[in-house]
């Protein structure tokens, strides 16, 4: 409730007076990181969230749906924003947004319960994602591979009940998803990884199990794995960033926060563009100097979201990314 009240105050909603609060959480201080020019001091979640959401100042009742800000034009009508491919950018934006909303390429947000009957726990799913990340790092696979592989897993488990729930089957499924995603992300993957290598890594007797699992997975996914991921959108939304040190750090941290989101089954319910926008929001909040808003008119125009649209996702992602946000690794 404190977080929600602080958020309402930050966007200008007038709350009824309450009795004075006797306790105020003290901020936790960490040793300064020599690599970070702007020291980031962790704050209690309500303080951090209220400060971040100060990017959106408006008198708005909670029940009123989010409406487009008339001061922020759509990308199609903007003549002030820099453009890399002016003849195609509107089509690219529209196509990415259309693809991410394609129901055929979206996992069910509650598939762990509705499809798998709670026989796969969120912790088991998170452990599988960590194992898949380790596999990708071991073979130095292309950036974005893990996001696409996890998307394949979530989609597959949204339509197929696991045959059994042994670690062996999950590793086979995860390794196959990484292998399939890697081939899509980087054609040179075949020189690093093949079914025999996957079988060796997983301790299988034959590579035929990998090929069979891949056929089964692709059939379940309708042979469609081209949908954009949060990794895609972080790159897309930061394409106008200059090559300056600060903006590159924001981009790198946003990618790291988006990577962290893969561990949380709750984030499956958000569109990839929302996850990416929230990651950029939190990265800017963590790295930018005091007084700089984590969201501005240009980012709202680029992403199509204002800070109020991102409120739920930002809060959830902050809850499991505090170490990255409070102590950025670079």
Name the CATH superfamily assignment of the largest domain: Cyclin-like
Architecture (CATH level 2) name of the largest domain: Orthogonal Bundle
Q: Mean of the pLDDT scores? A: 77
Number of domains: 2
Uncertain stretches of 5 or more adjacent residues: 1-44, 57-80
Q: Estimate the global geometry from the Cα principal axes.
A: globular
Q: How many β-strand runs?
A: 0
Percent helix among the residues? 40-55%
Quick overview:
This protein is 51% helix and 0% strand.
List the helices and strands and how they pair.
Elements: H1 2-10, H2 45-52, H3 89-100, H4 111-114, H5 122-138, H6 145-159, H7 167-185, H8 195-202, H9 208-220, H10 230-237, H11 245-261, H12 272-287, H13 297-303, H14 311-320, H15 322-326
Helix pairs in contact: 1-2, 5-6, 5-7, 6-7, 7-8, 7-9, 8-9, 10-11, 10-12, 11-12, 12-14
Any overview of this molecule?
- The protein has 330 residues and is mostly helical.
- It has two domains: 1-102 and 229-330, Cyclin-like (Cyclin A, domain 1), CATH 1.10.472.10; 109-220, Cyclin A, domain 1.
- Helix content is 51%, strand content 0%.
- The protein has 15 helices and no strands.
- Helix 8 (195-202) packs across helix 9 (208-220) and helix 11 crosses helix 12 (272-287).
- The protein starts with a helix and ends with a helix.
- The relative contact order is 0.14.
Key words describing this protein structure:
single chain, 330 residues, mainly alpha, Cyclin A, domain 1, 51% helix, globular, cell cycle, Cyclin_C-dom, cyclin-dependent protein serine/threonine kinase regulator activity, Cyclin_A/B-like
